[in-house]
Amino acid sequence: MPAAIASAPPEGMIAAMSSGEASVEAGLEADIQAVAERRDKAAFARIFSFYGPRVNAYLRRLGAEAAAAEDLTQDVMLTVWRRARQFDRGRAALSTWVYTIARNRRIDVLRRERRPDFDQHDPTLVRDDSAPRGDQLAEAAEARRLVMEAVAQLPSEQARLLEIFYFAEKPHSTIADELGLPLGTVKSRLRLALGKLRRKLNGPDA
Amino acid sequence: MIEHQTVDDLLLAHAAGTLPEPVALVVATHLALNPAARARYRRYEAVGGVLLEAIEPKALACDAWARAAARLDAEHPEPPRHEHAMPAGDLTLPCPLREYLPTPLGGLRWRSYGAVAEIELPLDAPGYSTTLVRVRAGRQVPQHTHEGHELTLVLDGAFHDETGRYGRGDLAIADGSLDHRPTADAGQDCLCLTVTDAPRRLTGWIGRWLNPFIRF
């Protein structure tokens, strides 16, 4: 069985998280706040022990060798430490923020490519004036809850494909070969999974 | 290869970090211009965060924390970010596109073919062509079809073709099944960012004749 599939998370893991581990994320968000305000090393140690091995797993899944993944994890976690004051919990959950840092670093380093991203602070960015700042705070926490629910409710074969889509940089045809499924089946299952996610996240019209 | 069929697929792939750089550039610029797309994109990034929380952890080396801890004091904290000052000059182009231009928009040297002028952006991405295209107000791009895919993001003005009308911040996806003839709205030139993963093929009578010689 290909490595990417063998190391998929145990079934029901996300479902278990959405009930039990909300407090872990809340605790870690308090920790990143403490890092931002007073460079609290004990708080950062907790963030490191939770996210370090997960970032490492993510990088390994994307093909980094053990030593390279270890170094890049150090790099990602030190970026979290340095940028703690830039974390804005109104904009994203901590897990989302760490994920984006890890994703961008692996594109830089493993793919040796620039990652073009929009800049939230660019004055030429077109803004949505109808969304008041106060609502965004609830929005980030709500988005994480919605996403957890939506992912937990996917049938396991669709959840697995979604995971491969995020954590394995492969064209659909390679994913199909590895799963021993026709390309059309992979595409239609992924489409089904994405459709469900979309409706759950963006409303029935999405 | 661009194997995405809808704009939402592209947003998701950008959140997953799987798009090749030229396609990512178009999608990121689309996000800068389109708050509704940005709201959906943030949720796709949240999916990445939730999957990261759920991934089976892979233990780091025993000394990993000691290694990191030893460096903490030397790492300078980065200040919170605020909106920066307006860049000088042309404000049509948001980040990240602005960073890919060798000079401000006004100083660029366009290559003109009738109603169409273009500049190829210097991206190191074999197999892709990334181009700024300007179509004169009310004029048409020659009829063409695609061997691969073409993404077109409107930066200024608007155009319409068989599939609809596209204004600033809108992203159009065309593939081999579409034989189209985009027309810029009257009254204003239309400026677009396009990326293709195969040469466009002219299908009009003159176009067919010119095909071996030009790319537009």
Characteristic key phrases:
heterodimer; A: 206 residues; mainly alpha; 10 helices; 69% helix; disordered N terminus; B: 216 residues; alpha+beta; six-stranded antiparallel sheet; 5 helices; 11 strands; disordered C terminus
Report on the architecture of this protein.
The complex is a heterodimer of chains A (206) and B (216). With 206 residues, chain A is mainly alpha-helical. In chain A, 69% of the residues lie in helices and 0% in strands. Chain A is globular and about 55 Å long. In chain B, the strands form three sheets. A six-stranded antiparallel β-sheet of chain B has the order 1-2-3-10-5-8, with helices on one face. In chain B, strands 7-6-9 form a three-stranded antiparallel β-sheet, with no helix packed on it. Chain B has a two-stranded antiparallel ribbon with strand order 4-11. In chain B, helix 2 crosses helix 3. Chain B is built from five helices and eleven strands, in the order H-H-H-H-E-E-E-E-E-E-E-E-E-E-E-H. At the A-B interface, helix 2, helix 4, helix 5, helix 6 and helix 7 of A face helix 1, helix 2, helix 3 and helix 4 of B.
Measured distance between first and last alpha carbons of chain A: 35 Å
The SSE order of chain A reads: HHHHHHHHHH
Shape of chain B: elongated
Order of helices and strands of chain B: HHHHEEEEEEEEEEEH
Percent of residues in helices of chain B comes to: 25-40%
Portion in beta strands of chain A = under 5%
Mean pLDDT of chain B: 85
Q: What does the largest sheet of chain A look like? A: none
Number of DSSP helices of chain B? 5
Q: What percentage of the residues of chain B does DSSP assign to strands (E)?
A: 15-25%
